[in-house]
Amino acid sequence: MATLTFYGAVEGVTGSMHLLKTRSSTVLLDCGLFQGGRKVEAQNTQDFPFAIGDIDAVVLSHAHLDHSGRLPLLISKGYRGPIYMTSATCDLIDIMLKDAASLQMRDAEWENKRRQRAGKDPIDPLYTLEDVEQTLQLCQGIDYNCTAQVTSDITLILHEAGHILGSSIVELILSDTTPSRKLVFSGDLGNAQAALLRDPAYIRNANVVLMESTYGDREHRSMQATLDEFEEVITKASADGGNILIPSFAVGRTQEIIFRLGELYQKGKLPQQLICLDSPMAIAVTEIYHRYQDVYNREDKARIENYGSSDAKYTQKSLHTFLPPLRYAVSTEESVALNRIDRGAIIIAGSGMCNGGRIRHHLKHNLWRRQSHVIFVGYQAVGTPGRKLVDGAKRIRMAGESIAVNAQIHTMGGFSAHASQSQLIDWFLHFTSPSPQLFLVHGEDTAKQVLQKALSEKGVQAKIPEEGQTIDI
């Protein structure tokens, strides 16, 4: 009998990691970072709760760090097997893991200076750039809907998840018994209202399904209502004479916002003359999105291709040509220069939860201004500065200072890259035969419990696993 053990994204949203064992194989599904407050992130330094030498293969659902961010740590501990994912995910984690390693090495250096002054022993970073390079050498990209034999008795098929570029629903067929059995892991399912990517694929049969539940307790506003509000904030900020700050995740959300600003620009409804993407990672990711336009949905791809003319840098239309006022701030100097602008700019900067990146300096220079606006376009985990701002904090510590929060704060959940409650339920109800066991992961307790109740009303009995729990497949 095959088993599955839940090791991450069980008691919260981050740290996705599940271990599948058959009679002769062991496969790890995701290997993500725990993100949030210090207590949550302390879990990243704990030993892996399994024997790394037993793992035959790793399957990665997508590039976000809460799903991929501990892969280099796994390699530093001795794993040398294949890591399967889509080709786009291979390209994205090249950027994201190197950035994560650089931040960890920098943070360890700063902490060690403090510890040296206090007479304490130094610490090591979670992993290094060398670990990342070794990780990338093990990555194998496969196309959607193609079959890959990952072990002697486990076959893999990746399906479009519509969450970010390259995101996938993982289908694993276990052939160590007759008849074979099937495990389906949703990864992170996309919001069908979102721009650019195709909707999540439907799978018809499985024995066991792991489904995310990030927004299991709520519905997103309609995209039209969200876009109307987005336009209203942009118009009001222009009238107020302030800047708009958009803390945005480098992968997915940034590209969605660029596309939506492009729509407003084409309609003559974008009064701001400076739209700046201030995130080296988001800039690099946007260029990767440009290379993979073949996976865009037909409607948005056509809109990009039908607008304007390509500039000399591109051989085809792109998000950059779709929004001509867009500028990139690559260097630190270009980023710092933006802090001298006190009106009329839209600044998109990382990180999405305001717990790092250049957005913290822009918040420091703008939060205290009453004419400033901050637009949150993604999930804010408990314990992060972004969550504190969304929850109405009057003061917040930012870049070493306590800053008064006078800016107008807006939350636009309709831009979420995650499926809403009804979308999650709809996705699962497409499973027909056999009726699979359903386990809810990747959600806060309330979200999972509310989704569990909503599914029960549809006649579906969903289970909420515990950390370290093992189930039979």
Give structural notes:
With 473 residues, the protein is an alpha/beta fold. The protein folds into two domains: 272 residues, Ribonuclease Z/Hydroxyacylglutathione hydrolase-like (Metallo-beta-lactamase, Chain A), CATH 3.60.15; 193 residues, 3-Layer(aba) Sandwich (Rossmann fold). Helices cover 32% and strands 21% of the residues. The protein has 15 helices and 22 strands. Helix 4 runs antiparallel to helix 5 and helix 4 packs antiparallel against helix 8. The protein is globular, with a radius of gyration of 22 Å. The termini are close together.
Spell out the blueprint of helices and strands.
Layout: E1 3-8, E2 17-21, E3 26-29, H1 38-41, E4 57-59, H2 65-68, H3 71-76, E5 83-86, H4 87-117, H5 129-137, E6 139-142, E7 147-151, E8 154-160, E9 168-174, E10 181-185, E11 208-212, H6 223-240, E12 244-247, H7 253-266, E13 274-278, H8 280-291, H9 298-306, H10 319-322, E14 326-328, H11 332-338, E15 345-349, H12 359-366, E16 373-376, H13 385-390, E17 395-398, E18 401-404, E19 408-411, H14 421-429, E20 437-441, H15 445-456, E21 462-463, E22 470-472
Parallel strand pairs: 3-4, 4-5, 5-6, 10-11, 11-20, 12-15, 12-16, 13-14, 13-15, 16-19, 20-21
Antiparallel strand pairs: 1-2, 1-22, 2-3, 7-8, 8-9, 9-10, 17-18
